[in-house]
Amino acid sequence: MALRNHSTITEFILLGLSVDSHVQVLLFVLFLGIYLFTIMGNLSMLLVIREDPHLHTPMYFFLSHLSFMDFCLSTAIVPKLLENLLSQSKTISVGGCLAQVFFVFDIGGTEVCLLSAMAYDRYAAICHPLLYGRVMNNQLYMQLVWGSWSLGFLDALINIPLTMNLDFCEAKIIHHYSCELPSLFPLSCSDVSTSLTVLVCSTLLHGGGTFFLIFFSYVRIVSTILSISSTSGRSKAFSTCSSHLTALSFFYGSAFLRYLMPTSGSPLELIFSIQYGVVTPLVNPLIYSLKNKEVKNALRRTLGKCLQ
């Protein structure tokens, strides 16, 4: 049923990042290195959080799921990019393209929800430190995590079936290195107005809801930090949420701008896609390890155990 309307087109062509063969070799080496470091970094974070009892707290439970999502997001995008950099045909089947669209949409939507849950966690820790254990109890943070996964899946479930029912005729060139939902609409010979409306509305609703929670949390956090009399106290309070703010700025803006801006094949689209789909999964483990004493100490303890 999913592919019955795609009989005239069985595959798409991904133009990628460059048509120069020498540049493609350099890009292959670059993105292979990025992918390997991404996998190692996120798997290391998962291992450290799992093995170190000091990190069995709500914040690091959220972080473990963030690392798993970054691992999945990078794996959904980069291997096909690497294959096409070495391939002459640079094709992807319609089914494979729709599968990639689904996983990127699902994981990206889940990550946005999780980042907003992490903002609420920082709000509870900074604004209500004495009540933190009661506010962010085991039941609540489990609900926030599984709610994030459910909302991401629901968002993908709303958008992707509409795309699966589109007809793709003669045009089959995607001016991109991966399949993303906005890039498929110009290739369809069906009416895409409904699909486009649903995409914009769901993105605004998804983004607006999570942005409101993040904005509310950080307004209260900043207000609380400014009310602290000592400079060292303000600095310590701010340092507890600086890693989250950095991760948020890397992913949030670029992902929503990519899905809301008109598809034109411009370099800006590629930059936004690379930032949220390739760069963010790479830098998140670095952000949370280099700027976090607890994680650095846990890494030393875990390495010590492994070397014994």
From TrEMBL:
Membrane topology per record: Multi-pass membrane protein
Residues that span the membrane, as ranges: 25-48, 60-78, 98-120, 140-158, 196-216, 237-258, 270-290
Record's subcellular location: Cell membrane; Membrane
Stored InterPro entries: GPCR_Rhodpsn (IPR000276), GPCR_Rhodpsn_7TM (IPR017452), Olfact_rcpt (IPR000725)
Pfam families: 7tm_4
Domain G-protein coupled receptors family 1 profile: 41-288
Keywords associated with the record: Cell membrane, G-protein coupled receptor, Membrane, Olfaction, Receptor, Sensory transduction, Transducer, Transmembrane, Transmembrane helix
The UniProt record lists the keyword Transmembrane helix: yes
Keyword Coiled coil applies: no
PROSITE patterns for the chain: G_PROTEIN_RECEP_F1_1, G_PROTEIN_RECEP_F1_2
Chief subcellular location: membrane
Top-level taxon: Eukaryota
CDD domains named among the record's database cross-references: 7tmA_OR8S1-like (cd15229)
UniProt family annotation: Belongs to the G-protein coupled receptor 1 family.
Functional description taken from the UniProt entry: Putative odorant or sperm cell receptor.
Entry protein name: Olfactory receptor
Upper lineage: Eukaryota, Metazoa, Chordata, Craniata, Vertebrata
